[in-house]
């Protein structure tokens, strides 16, 4: 338990040297590092539970002394920060579990926790509020010109320099900037161009890529054909059972989408592997029959009055 508390304090203080030293001692002591990582996850789970529910909760199966330590260590930390640490540990668990360099993997995961800023969201909100207050005019309204010229929110020093620069060029900044004409979505030329670009088979694949990624991969590898009946035929080969079931379950939806998007009917032809197996079986049957009719086989069968079983 003391090792767990030392690890957590080192993470909160962002003491990378301390973390490396603790992991090295644990490894030299013969403790299973994967079990050690699992204990770290459980430890921060207790942190999260106690921070949310208090020390009297039965969900954390630890002693009251351990609960008091956790309360003292997390007194100035938010529950969101602890929850983020737990989430990162769980997300990276597979790396530790399957890595051939377990110690290095644990070191990298724990050092990665330093990238979490416990006050990042609060600082960002405060900076944005400061920016808005600088953009307010004497009547309490916002200047459109200034908002359009607002840079990305950074450090307070940059924000102060930006405010002074705006004050020195107040008249120029307050001038409204006309919206560029090319941004208009109602321009018939733009709409016509988009239609020409999108209403293609490539555009149809792009349309289903996010919604049906498995089917998008199959269609990309498939063979596309078109006939005179205003129909698109896509042939899919070497599909697994999961892929076959996926295509069958979404077949009607894909056909409707193709009809609405391209104005054509969609036919999906799955080339089954059973066809190849049947051809192979027929070939084996012919070869077997030819072997049975071989003169030497026939003579041996007659000589011993036997039956061919294999």
Account of the 3D structure:
- This protein is mostly helical.
- Helix content is 66%, strand content 6%.
- The chain has helices spanning 2-12, 16-28, 33-53, 64-73, 79-91, 93-98, 102-112, 120-135, 144-148, 156-168, 170-174, 188-198, 201-209, 213-221, 241-249, 251-262, 273-292, 295-304; strands at 223-227, 231-237, 265-271.
- Strands 1-2-3 form a 3-stranded mixed β-sheet.
- It is flat and about 90 Å long.
- 11% of the residues are buried.
- Residues 145-177 and 179-197 have low confidence and may be disordered.
Q: Which characteristics define this entry?
A:
6% strand, 310 residues
Helix and strand topology:
Blueprint: H1 2-12, H2 16-28, H3 33-53, H4 64-73, H5 79-91, H6 93-98, H7 102-112, H8 120-135, H9 144-148, H10 156-168, H11 170-174, H12 188-198, H13 201-209, H14 213-221, E1 223-227, E2 231-237, H15 241-249, H16 251-262, E3 265-271, H17 273-292, H18 295-304
Parallel strand pairs: 2-3
Antiparallel strand pairs: 1-2
Helix pairs in contact: 1-2, 1-3, 2-7, 3-5, 13-14
Radius of gyration: 34 Å
Briefly note the structural class of the backbone.
mainly alpha
Report strand %: 5-15%
Give the termini separation. 68 Å
Uncertain spans? 145-177, 179-197
- Overall strand count: 3
Helix content bin = 55-70%
Short description:
The chain is mainly alpha-helical.
